[in-house]
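Final paragraph of the annual report: two paired records, presented back to back.
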Amino acid sequence: MDASIDEAKVVRINPGSFNRAGVETEAGEVEIRLSRYGNWMVHIREAGSSEWSIACTGDMKSGVLVTEPLSEDQDRMVFGPLTIWRAARRVIVGEDEVVLGRKEFDLLLVLASDPYRVFTKEELMKAVWGWFGESTRTLESHAVRLRAKLTTAGVKGLVVNVRSVGYRLCPQIPPTPRTTTRPLSGVSDHAPAA
């Protein structure tokens, strides 16, 4: 049965960083989430199902629309209360979005690609900035800001500084099966020799 908008239930809620509007019919639900930073997602769920899927995502500032997103298994990385959405370049803790700069997000994504592994400063500089020089101050300052933002959001101790070596992601809760890792170009699969 096709439902008209007159038969639909429209819901508006505002939990934290998101404004959400939803339409519910006999066939299912559609929910639009808009962050205060201009990112948006359209989620759909069939009637009787408890699982939401992403129909599309976008960015109001750039006008980018992703109509064929990565599958949820490829796009979403979950570490306890923290969720990283790769395609939308978003980090969510609970229902709140953590606003990260471009390089802070890239740094988190590299670390999340292989949880618990120690990435050397050289590897991180090459993966995030595309080069490695004598100074690692840029990396260190971005790591400090990333750690501070995650701590403020309630995720303390996720990004760990391994003194004189580099950084690693140390989830307090082991990654879920939905967490996927992909090899990074320019980053070796093995930890450096001691």
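The closing record of the year follows.
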Amino acid sequence: MQYLKFAVSISIISWMVGMIVNALIKNQSFYANLSNFNFIRSKRINKWLGLGVFKWVVKNTAFKFFNQSLKVETRVGLPELEALRKEMTTAEVGHLIGFGFVLVFAAEKAAGGDYLFGLTIMGLNALLNLYPSLLQQQNKRRLDRLIERYRRRVLGAGDREPARPATETGLPPKK
């Protein structure tokens, strides 16, 4: 029980660490690369990992109230979609930073011979930091397709504002 309490506590603390470090690095040049980073692109692997189940849990439990800035309730345009993508990137990178933070504690416990403690920490770390990050990556890929369709349909008409370069929007470059 002590292991579980510590694992939950350090994982929740890691969310704060992730938010703070993310705020510090957000304006760095390498952040755009993080914006387009993908661990797992394969839908089949995501399904095998149970990302669909995790998504259901997030949508249908109290977790849905955690980050309200990642919600779209009305019909939106390109600026709102791009703003949503930035928020998603912030959440994703924050969870990745949190995952790394907790990984240090788990590795220290395992290196000290307390394998069960390290494994308990990593199990909760995967659920509370890695899976949310993977879910954000999956959602960003879906959102990127939507943004691209929007650009082709609405902005591709020629008489509207031109699409901004990928570096400005944080989107991957067009092919």
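The chain has a mean pLDDT of 85. This concludes the annual technical report; the extension proposal builds directly on these records.
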